[in-house]
Amino acid sequence: MKLLIRNGRVIDPATGIDAVCDVLIEGGTIRAVEPEIRLPDMSKARLVDATGCIVTPGLIDMHTHLREPGHEYKETIASGSRAAAAGGFTSIVCMANTQPVNDSAAVTRFICERARTTACVNVYPVGAITVGLRGETLTEMGDMKEAGIVAVSDDGVTVADAGVMRRGIEYARTFDLPVICHCEDRTLSRNGVMHEGLTSVRLGLRGIPAAAEEIMVARDILLAGLTGHPVHIAHVSTAGSVHLIRDAKARGIPVTAETAPHYFTLTDEAVLGFNTDAKVNPPLRTAADVTAVREGLRDGTLDVIASDHAPHSSLEKDLEFDNAAFGMIGLETTLALTLALVRENVLTMAQALEKLTVNPARILRLPKGVLTPGAAADITIFDPQQPWTVDRNRFFSKSKNSPLHGLQVAGTVRHTLVAGTVVFPFAT
């Protein structure tokens, strides 16, 4: 059956479309994007009224942790994909730090098969750069690419040895695989639990200096220049990192970068009261860093907004701050926090959606992120004005570790479509 989305404001940053249009879908494919589409027999089409809503290419989250295999009590591919659909994401990219690590074609195939049978959105795995994330021996990237990975990363652990990282980037270049860099000098961050600054001193907690991130950002930028292969800097949190990336881009070095909503929404003061849900890596930084991250998004230094969805159960979070796990969930709040930047005139709506659609698709070479005839009908429809209150007890994620509980936000997902099928709202 045909599906006709009517009267929505269609915004496609890839093509520059921003107009009230209808979208016709048939056979999982977009057939037309035009004003007032008329069908010979409207009774043979399912109609979706998008009046007052924005219709955009399906959102893409290029940085998530789905915990399967190994820690299914925190999240599964099935539950993570449901959280993604509820958050408006039609494609998610899952990092390699599972148990076992996704460092072989066998683990990649397992993830892809589980996604095929249990996920309601597209799931793309990232393979490890080094075996076991140990920073020593390179993985068989070619085998993993054949099995289904779209990038390589030792996310969660920096490849500390610059020689190993150089060889990893060069090896990834052989297979045209993007390299996603977790930038953290562990000799500076070791034993730290939050940003090093006035708040850490007030709380008596061991700090992680901004330099721990910035030193490795500088190194990986230099390696991108040395090898000529693009690198993508994950979860940028500091003003210094933004400056380094901006300068590298001006000099023509092939680097892209992302940040997460918590780095442009919260400061390290969210940790006050020893709130372990605000314990993340890299840590929440200062107001000056938040301002710099926002400016980096505004001027294009930061290409992508990604959730860094990191689910943990109460077993890992309801502990003394020093012993609690790093990470917060974000699939179901990323869109609303990003729309706050639009209301605050940091980004235009098209710029915000660009960072959630076509930019991650381009970086990862995914055939997604566009609303053109012939493209897969991955589509997100949302009401940008509808207010709601963040309630972690209503999340579809298995974990509830969000410091945003009770926050008043705006921007509600009305429909999420994958290959022309409505996957959210969920069937009852």
As a percent range, the share of helical residues equals 25-40%
Low-confidence stretches are none
| Alpha-carbon distance between the two ends | 21 Å
Beta-strand residue fraction: 15-25%
The number of distinct β-strands equals 18
* Average pLDDT figure: 97
The top-level CATH class of the largest domain is: Alpha Beta
Structural class from helices and strands? alpha/beta
The description of the largest β-sheet is:
8 strands, mixed
Q: How would you explain this protein's 3D organization?
A:
The protein is globular, with a radius of gyration of 21 Å. The strands form four sheets. Strands 1, 2, 3, 4, 5, 16, 17 and 18 form an eight-stranded mixed sheet that branches. The chain has 428 residues and is of the alpha/beta class. It has two domains: 2-55 and 375-424, Urease, subunit C, domain 1; 58-364, Alpha-Beta Barrel (TIM Barrel), CATH 3.20.20.140. Helices cover 30% and strands 23% of the residues. The protein is built from 14 helices and 18 strands. The two termini are 21 Å apart.
